Hints:
Elements: H1 3-13, H2 25-43, E1 46-48, H3 52-55, E2 56-59, E3 65-67, E4 72-80, E5 88-90, H4 92-98, E6 111-113, E7 120-124, E8 131-139, H5 162-170, H6 181-195, H7 201-211
Parallel strand pairs: 5-6
Antiparallel strand pairs: 1-8, 2-8, 3-7, 4-8, 6-7
Helix pairs in contact: 1-5, 2-5, 5-6
Amino acid sequence: MKLRDLLTVVRLEIDDATAPYLWTDPELIEYAVDAENEASRRARLLIDSSTVAICQIAVVANTALYALDSRVLFIRRAKLTLDDRPLSRASVRDLDNAVVNWEAEATSPSQFVVDFETGKVRLYPKPVANDTLNLTVVRLPAVDMNDLEDAPEIKAHYHRSLRFWIMHRAYSKQDSETKDDKKALENLAKFEQEFGSKSSALDEEWIEREQAYDPFSGVL
Length: 220
């Protein structure tokens, strides 16, 4: 479903199908972008192993810390090209308890750490050879929709349900002709029935640090 079709459905439901509109196209497009981001965060809808800019990181010998793409929510799997086995997940706490001066160790990495520095992944031990780190991630949409001919990246059978968040936002607009708290809450409830309750930053940080999937012990 293209964004044009989705917004046509929305305009029919909110009785705003003819100009002059109560909600402009740019407003509804912004609500639609927000809807896809919310759906992706709540239901972990976008899993990616192949987008080079997001899932591949050039590893440089003697460098342990690497920036993650800002669209990455969770790392599900991490594997070096030169190694047959995926890396296991470790936390700073685990390494501090188990290995004296672990930051200085250098050999072929066997683990990755996501709570060493915000927005970055650290390899342990520090690599001694150039390589490529291949990630499987849960992420946000790769590109925000900004044109009526664009389409959401999430699976097509979820597209129509995005309308509930769009209408939730529309009925929350601070204007005497648009604001309707009852309808805003009704549409929020319908959105949450499909995609789940709000995924807070607190929850996401804990999941990434403590519970995110890895091949040996995790489940996310």
